[in-house]
Amino acid sequence: MGDNNGLFFVGLVMRFHVLIFTVVLGFFSTFSSGQEVIRSSVSKEFIHGLQVKYLKNIAKHMNMEIEIIPMPFARRLREFRHGNLDLMVGLQRESEKQDEVIYITPSYETLRHTFFVRKENIDKLQNFTDLKTLSIGVTRNAKYFERFNQESDLIMVPVSTLRQKIELLKKGRINTFIHFQESALPLIIEMGLQNDIVLAEYQPIEVNNYYVTISQNSPLIGKKHLFESAVRDAIANHEFATIRREHYASQRDSH
């Protein structure tokens, strides 16, 4: 009995030390070398992608360093809401209700989602109703367009990465997946599947606004007005549109 109590006490001490280490690590990450650092994150697939360029441009406007850590979207969102990340791009506003996420208005871009299918099954997705008979690859915890988000009869297969969606479709384990065309097509080509995986006949007409967001629980929340000024200046100067155009032009040239 005494040995068990001793082991229990040791376990508590070890967990306490891990907790303290995590807090201290977070502190030093935020205040690296005495200088405040913006903490953000993107998918590991796109650590050199478009969102990274957006984030670095915002940091440049603020004359601050930025640390960008790769992690899946669901974890990214959780860490952001807890204040372990300060800044995110690529979020839709789901409601006017204020929570841990501060949306900087106006939105920095408006995008439409795209469905992909195997070429031999292109006739199986002709309209929205067809989706109810198909299994659909989606990004875990992501939001798409309103009708899709509210439909309860859809068979959704949540995954962490775009590559997983493509692999599942290639193997026939899902019937379609939804993603942005501009980022999906280059990866499909890179994987040599451009003749096998194609755009579906049905595509949504709805467009979605995407926002730069700040965590209400971020230690940098006192700089909220500076974040807002940086984003609004970049929007007014058409910097997001320019970065996006140049990014996808360079991808087309590389292929």
UniProtKB/TrEMBL annotation:
Keyword presence, Magnesium: no
Sequence intervals crossing the membrane: 6-31
Superkingdom assignment: Bacteria
Domain (Solute-binding protein family 3/N-terminal) ranges: 47-162
Gene3D superfamilies: Periplasmic binding protein-like II
Pfam families: SBP_bac_3
Coiled-coil ranges per UniProt: none
Keywords: Membrane, Signal, Transmembrane, Transmembrane helix
InterPro entries: Solute-binding_3/MltF_N
The keyword Cell division is assigned to this record: no
SUPFAM superfamilies hit by this protein: Periplasmic binding protein-like II
Listed PANTHER family: AMINO-ACID-BINDING PROTEIN YXEM-RELATED (PTHR35936:SF19), MEMBRANE-BOUND LYTIC MUREIN TRANSGLYCOSYLASE F (PTHR35936)
Family: Belongs to the bacterial solute-binding protein 3 family.
Name of the protein in question: Extracellular solute-binding protein
